[in-house]
Amino acid sequence: MTVNEALRLVAGIMILISLALTQFHSPNWMWFTAFIGVNLLQSSITKWCLMMTILKKLGLKESNAQCS
Questions:
Q1: Does residue 38 lie in a domain region?
Q2: Closest by alpha carbon to 30, among 19, 41, 17?
Q3: Residue 43 in contact with residue 49, Cβ under 8 Å?
Q4: Band of the pLDDT at 68, cuts 50, 70, 90?
Q5: 13 in a domain, yes or no?
Q6: How far apart (Å, rounded) are the C-alpha atoms in residues 35 and 48?
């Protein structure tokens, strides 16, 4: 698994968890969903993501695939 694949996996899991917590626990968990969205937006603008740094330190490799 590459860093990009793992990042998408983590983001998807966190969004689903936050939505489940919103449904079954408290509507305030929607703020966590908003935080994830803001973090994704920030990383697209700055080209830096803390989770990618963490995943690289855990030993995941960057993808060398390019679109043709």
A1: yes
A2: 19
A3: yes
A4: very low
A5: yes
A6: 16
Residue 29: domain span? 3-57
pLDDT at 5 over 90: yes
Angle ∠(43,26,36) on CA atoms, nearest 5: 5
**63: Cβ–Cβ under 8 A, 6 or more apart, which residues?**
2, 3, 4, 5
Number of domains composing the chain? 1
* pLDDT exceeds 60 at position 33: yes
Model confidence, pTM: 0.79
Residue 64 lies in a domain: no
Q: Is residue 21 part of a domain?
A: yes
Q: Which residues pair with 61 in a beta bridge?
A: 2
Q: Please tell me the predicted confidence (pLDDT) of residue 63.
A: 76
